[in-house]
Each structure stands twice: as structure tokens, then as C-alpha cells.
């Protein structure tokens, strides 16, 4: 479901990743129309060891 317009989309785009100290984090999705309103994912995730390639292009 799109985080901005709250509509279901068949083609969601990950616009943000939420990380918590306790428990699993989650991804924030937006539809294609709303995705441009959000900044790209921060590169810091790629700089952290062990995060590379995790959760990318999932189903
Ligand atoms: Zn939307």
C-alpha cells in the first residue's frame, strides 16, 4: 500500500527503510506516482557491512 495516497498498487516502490534497535524493521512503499516525492534511499545502507544485497528486489 502506498504510504502517501494510501492506495494499493501492483507496482510498489521502496521509498524508505525503517530500522529499529529491537525487532525487525520494515520497508515503506509508495506507488509509482508518489515515489518521486520521496528522496532516494540513503547510500549509508550500502556503506554498512553485511547489508549489501539484503532485501533488494524481493517479491
Ligand atoms: Zn501513491
Can you describe what's shown?
With 59 residues, this protein is mostly beta strands. Helices cover 7% and strands 19% of the residues. The chain has 1 helix and 2 strands. It has one helix spanning 44-47, and strands at 13-18, 26-30. The protein has a two-stranded antiparallel ribbon. The model has no long low-confidence stretch (mean pLDDT 79). Bound molecules: zinc ion. The site of zinc ion has 8 residues, from loops.
Topology:
Blueprint: E1 13-18, E2 26-30, H1 44-47
Antiparallel strand pairs: 1-2
Short structural description:
By secondary structure, the protein is mainly beta. Helix content is 7%, strand content 19%.
Main traits of this protein?
59 residues, mainly beta, 2 strands, 7% helix, globular, binds zinc ion
Amino acid at each position: 500500500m502506498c504510504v502517501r495516497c494510501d492506495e494499493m498498487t501492483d507496482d510498489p516502490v521502496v521509498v524508505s527503510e525503517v530500522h529499529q534497535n529491537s525487532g525487525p524493521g520494515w520497508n515503506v512503499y509508495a506507488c509509482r506516482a508518489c515515489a518521486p516525492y520521496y528522496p532516494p534511499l540513503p547510500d549509508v545502507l550500502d556503506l554498512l557491512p553485511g547489508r549489501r544485497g539484503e532485501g533488494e528486489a524481493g517479491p
